[in-house]
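A reminder from the course coordinator: this example appears on the midterm review sheet, so study it carefully.

Given structure:
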C-alpha cells in the first residue's frame, strides 16, 4: 500500500456551551481532519490538538505545519503492508503525537475499508458494546453541577467524571456523593495540583472515587509516585503518558494504577494497542479518554475501546452531547444502559459527511 495523497481541513464547530477545565474554557473548536487516499480508498482521522498548548504542547496550527513539512514527506511514495507500519515510518520525528495520530488513524480506516472489515476487528477488538461515561466541566454552582449529573445519569451513562481545580474540588464531590451515594464517580484535575496539596487530595479518599485523574503536573511522574503512596484513591494518568516507555515507567514506579489512553496523545492505534497490551499483562485497567472530538475522532475512539482491557467506562459519549449536528452518519448514540453498540460496517463504521465537512471548512490543503 501507499498513501497517494492527503487532504488537511480545519473545520470550525461550536460546543453547545463552554467546557471549563482547570487549564481554561473551550467552546469554539478548530478541528483538524486528515483525509488519506490509500490506493484510491479514503480514510479519515482527526488531530486532537487544542487551539492552545494548555493541555499538551501541541496545537492545531503547529500540527498542520508538522503534517505538511515532516509527516507527509516521511510517508510520501513509501510502500507498506499495514497501517501498523506507519508509526515506525514516523519514528524519527520526535513528539507531535497528535499530528502523527491524525494520519495514522486515517490510514487504519482506509486499510479496514479496503479489506471490507470494521476497523475494530482489524485492530483485534472483541467488545461489541462499550461502556460510556461523561466528563462534566467546572460549573458555576453546586446546584448546576448536581442537575447536570442527574441528567446524564438519567440518560444511562455509567459513570460521572467532574473536572476539578483548587477551590472546586471537595465541595462538588461532597455534593454529588450526598445526592448519589452509589454512583461511579471520579475527578480529573488536568495537572492543577502540586505535591504539597497531598492532604487535600487525601481528604477525597472518604468519597470512594474510582480514581483521581492527573492531579499533578503533565511531566511529573515522580510526584505521582510520591502522591500515590499517600492516597487510597487510585491515580489515573492522562497528560503524563505519551509513549509506551512512559507507560512502563509509570507502572514500574507506581505512579498510577489506571491509565487513560488517548489516541492522539500516544500517536495512534499502534502505540495505543501496545500500551493497552502492557497494562493488560500487568492487570492494570485502561479506559479511553476524550478530547471533545468530532464524530470522526469519536469513531476512532470507539474502535480502540473494543480492545479487551478497556474495562472501565470511557469519555466516549453521544454526538448530541457535543454537537447540534455531527459530521458523520449515523451519529454516535448511547443506549439507555450507557453503552455504544459498535458499528459493523467497514472502517470506522460511520460515514463522514463530506459536503457538510466542506461547508464547515475554513482552511484546506492537499498534499500529493
Ligand atoms: O483531560 O480528559 C481530559 C477535554 C479536553 C481536554 C482534556 C480532557 C477533556 C475531557 C473531555 O475531559 C472528554 C470528552 O468528553 O471528550
Ligand atoms: Mg484528563
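Designed residues:
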Amino acid at each position: 500500500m501507499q498513501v497517494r495523497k492527503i487532504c488537511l481541513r480545519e473545520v470550525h464547530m461550536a460546543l453547545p456551551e463552554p467546557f471549563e477545565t482547570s487549564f481554561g474554557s473551550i467552546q469554539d473548536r478548530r478541528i483538524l481532519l486528515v483525509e488519506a487516499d490509500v490506493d484510491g480508498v479514503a480514510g479519515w482521522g482527526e488531530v486532537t490538538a487544542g487551539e492552545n498548548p494548555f493541555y499538551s504542547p501541541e496545537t492545531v496550527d503547529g500540527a498542520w505545519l508538522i503534517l505538511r513539512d515532516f509527516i507527509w514527506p516521511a510517508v510520501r511514495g513509501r510502500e507498506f503492508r499495514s497501517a501498523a507500519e506507519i508509526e515506525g515510518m514516523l519514528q524519527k520525528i520526535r513528539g507531535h503525537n497528535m499530528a502523527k495520530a491524525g494520519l495514522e488513524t486515517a490510514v487504519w480506516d482506509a486499510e479496514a475499508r479496503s479489506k471490507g472489515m470494521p476497523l475494530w476487528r482489524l485492530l483485534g477488538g472483541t467488545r461489541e458494546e462499550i461502556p460510556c461515561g461523561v466528563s462534566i466541566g467546572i460549573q458555576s454552582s453546586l446546584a448546576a453541577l448536581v442537575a447536570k449529573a442527574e441528567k446524564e445519569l438519567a440518560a444511562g451513562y455509567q459513570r460521572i467524571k467532574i473536572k476539578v481545580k483548587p477551590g472546586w474540588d471537595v465541595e462538588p464531590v461532597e455534593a454529588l456523593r450526598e445526592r448519589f451515594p452509589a454512583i461511579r464517580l471520579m475527578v480529573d484535575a488536568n495537572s492543577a495540583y502540586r505535591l504539597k496539596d497531598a492532604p487535600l487530595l487525601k481528604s477525597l479518599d472518604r468519597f470512594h472515587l474510582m480514581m483521581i485523574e492527573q492531579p499533578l503536573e503533565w511531566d511529573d511522574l515522580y510526584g505521582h509516585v510520591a502522591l500515590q503512596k499517600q492516597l487510597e484513591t487510585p491515580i489515573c494518568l492522562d497528560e503524563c503518558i505519551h509513549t509506551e516507555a512512559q507507560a512502563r515507567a509509570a507502572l514500574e514506579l507506581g505512579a498510577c494504577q489506571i491509565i487513560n489512553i488517548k489516541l492522539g496523545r500516544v500517536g495512534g492505534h499502534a502505540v495505543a494497542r501496545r500500551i493497552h497490551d502492557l497494562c493488560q499483562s500487568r492487570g492494570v485497567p485502561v479506559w479511553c479518554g476524550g478530547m471533545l472530538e468530532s464524530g470522526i475522532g469519536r469513531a476512532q475512539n470507539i474502535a480502540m475501546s473494543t480492545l479487551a482491557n478497556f474495562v472501565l467506562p470511557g469519555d466516549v459519549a453521544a454526538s448530541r452531547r457535543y454537537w447540534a449536528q455531527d459530521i458523520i452518519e449515523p451519529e454516535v448514540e448511547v443506549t439507555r444502559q450507557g453503552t455504544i453498540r459498535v458499528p459493523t460496517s467497514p472502517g470506522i463504521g460511520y460515514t463522514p459527511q463530506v459536503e457538510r465537512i466542506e461547508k464547515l471548512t475554513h482552511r484546506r490543503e492537499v498534499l500529493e
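The chain has two domains: 3-116, 122-341. The radius of gyration is 20 Å.
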